[in-house]
Amino acid sequence: METKHSLLIVEDEKAISNLIATTLETQGYHYEKASNGAQALMEITSHSPEIILLDLGLPDMDGVEIIRRVRSWSSVPIIVISARTEDQDKIEALDAGADDYLTKPFSVEELLARLRSTFRRISYIQSENGQVTTVFTNGDLKIDFAAAEVHMGEKELHLSPIEYRLLCELARNVGKVLTHQYLVNKVWENVNVSDIPSLRVYMATLRKKIEPDRENPRYIQTRVGIGYKMNRL
């Protein structure tokens, strides 16, 4: 099988590290390994992986600190794979700059799905790199940023200003989980009424307008207790 892509596995538990490595090998991915934070930072700077698979509970430093350090110089996608299941742990990692969060124990199929989603987002960003992007398309959804218009197929959608800003923020980060607080800060800016219950209300009204099947949403995925993600169709 032709080798594709390069990833870094940052995991101190050998059994899990080997499981991830075997999974990547079967899909033709190239990878490097690190078992602690210092080694991980060295690998990141020397090998420039396309995606980092990061455990938070490392022996020498917390994984969130690694995320913060990496984000000071790089936008490389980081998928956290951790036994920490509390919402606050997920929020802290995502707010620090992680792109996704997978809890242990995890299925091989889910890990591969998260990787495919992240690589699609990388591909989208690279295709737009160096270009002035005025139109975003995803499935039947089209956003014309210059005209501030949204269409679903041939039909123009009429969104409130907050609904429009929410949709644009999700579109600009397609495939990435955005926390509630991140969206609140981005969408409401300095407006006083900027709480998470309000965000949920506006997200519900936005979904009613863009989801063809409200019982089975395709575009906007909810991460319960964490935030939202726009899927790349």
TrEMBL record:
- Transmembrane residues, as ranges? none
Q: Keywords of this protein's UniProt record, alphabetized?
A: Cytoplasm, DNA-binding, Phosphoprotein, Transcription, Transcription regulation, Two-component regulatory system
Residue range(s) of DNA binding per entry: 133-232
Q: Which SUPFAM superfamilies match?
A: C-terminal effector domain of the bipartite response regulators (SSF46894), CheY-like (SSF52172)
The yes or no answer to whether the keyword Electron transport is present is no
The Gene Ontology biological process terms listed for this entry are: positive regulation of DNA-templated transcription
**Protein name as annotated:** Stage 0 sporulation protein A homolog
